[in-house]
Amino acid sequence: MLEKIINITSSSEYKNPPKSGKHGSKSGVFRHANFSLSDSISFSPAVAFMTSHHWKLNVFEKENDKTVIDFELDGIRFLVKVSEIDLAKHQDIEYSVTKNVETTKHKILVRVQFISFVSADTARKLDPRLTLPHLNNFLNDLTEISTYVLQLSENHPLVQNVIEKEAEQLKSEFEYLNSCIVNFLEMYLSKKFVFSLTDKNQGKHLSLSKLNISKI
Fold it and tell me: Tell me: the pLDDT tens digits for 29-80?
């Protein structure tokens, strides 16, 4: 079940994208890099794995103890900052998600933040997906609501209806994204993550923690 945790707020991550750096090393940045297997960087198994899943990798860098991955898939942009210590401890991944949506009257920027629980079998490899239809539907529905509702809150029945309608499908799509992120990190960090189901994390699935919709 998608937890109903929604805040109307702005996120500094959207305003301050990762800084650029030098290309070609693990600590560097690969900016606006839609790699193919003919590129030299494709010799990195981790980056080649992302390419095989049709992810357009915009930024990939180390930021202190976190790995920063900024990528696009199916018209949606994702920003993930993962600490291997926190990932092992809390078993979740936080996604900052943005999409530009055009309506008949306006261009709208939808920005949301999801926290997705990493299940015990997340590390299994899944077939690549070209689309994320339910996440796109979710973002489009929020955009439509915003055209006639000035302020959205977690108690608004229209928002709750959208959440309930797409809950299981969104969970499935984020489980796929989790699997890709975990496989990528295992290749990049040369380590194996072990996730387990405990009383503490039982019942956790997916939560929407931030939401911001603005005209552009």
Answer: 444 444 433 344 434 788 888 889 999 989 888 889 999 999 999 999 999 9
- For residue 200, CA distances in Å to 84, 92, 94, 104, 204 come to 19, 13, 18, 46, 9
Q: Is the pTM of this model over 0.85?
A: no
Sheet containing 76-83, strands listed edge to edge, beginning at the edge strand earlier in sequence = 2-3, 206-215, 107-117, 92-102, 76-83, 66-73, 56-63
Domain that holds residue 210: 2-215
Q: Determine how β-strand 92-102 pairs with β-strand 76-83.
A: antiparallel
Cα–Cα distance for residue pair 64/166, rounded to 1 Å: 35
- Which residues touch 70 (CB under 8 Å, ≥6 apart)? 17, 18, 57, 58, 59, 60, 77, 78, 79, 80
- Whether residue 29 contacts residue 47, with contact meaning beta carbons closer than 8 Å, is answered with no
